[in-house]
Specification:
The chain is of the alpha/beta class. It is about 15% helix and about 35% strand. It has 2 helices and 8 strands; from the N terminus they run E-H-E-E-E-E-H-E-E-E. The strands form 2 sheets. A 4-stranded mixed β-sheet has the order 1-4-3-2, covered by helices on one side. The protein has a 4-stranded mixed β-sheet with strand order 5-8-7-6, covered by helices on one side. The longest helix is centred in the middle third of the chain and has 11 residues. The radius of gyration is 15 Å and the shape is globular.
Length: about 130
């Protein structure tokens, strides 16, 4: 019998797990699990079928800011989810000019996408093929 992959749950590092959970809630994610009601060290958040895990890590455990993962999300409406994130406070006006991809654009590699960083400086990339 062949085994099938059913899902992937990336584990993202965070110096402050509670702050990261609040950030993901501003993007429409709901808390699935938290190991403590205050000052959690591990949590899981979910939106639709996407689940992310957030684990506390000391800043000395990685070469900040260069050693950070990127998570790419395929979405049905890049501009719509971008607007939702702005309205929910997940994307602030003071962060919009940090990257050419900080707002939705068509890319030379055939996608429409934008990117942002969570409080742990993990890169979140939202895209759809053109």
């Amino acid at each position: 019998m062949k085994a099938n992959l059913l899902a992937v749950h990336p584990v993202l590092a965070a110096i402050d797990v509670a702050e990261s959970v609040r950030f993901y809630q501003s993007l429409g994610f709901a808390v699935v699990f938290q190991d403590a009601p205050t000052n959690p060290r591990y949590a899981a958040v979910r939106r639709d079928v996407v689940e992310l895990h957030i684990q506390w890590a000391d800043k000395d455990q990685w070469a900040y800011p260069t050693d950070r993962p990127a998570v790419r999300f395929i979405v049905t409406g890049v501009d719509a989810i971008y607007s939702e994130f702005v309205e929910g406070g997940g994307i602030r006006p003071d962060t919009l000019n940090r990257s050419p991809w900080s707002s939705p654009k068509d890319t030379p590699w055939g996608t429409r996408e934008f990117r942002l960083r969570d409080p742990g400086q993990n890169s979140l990339q939202f895209y759809r093929p053109l």
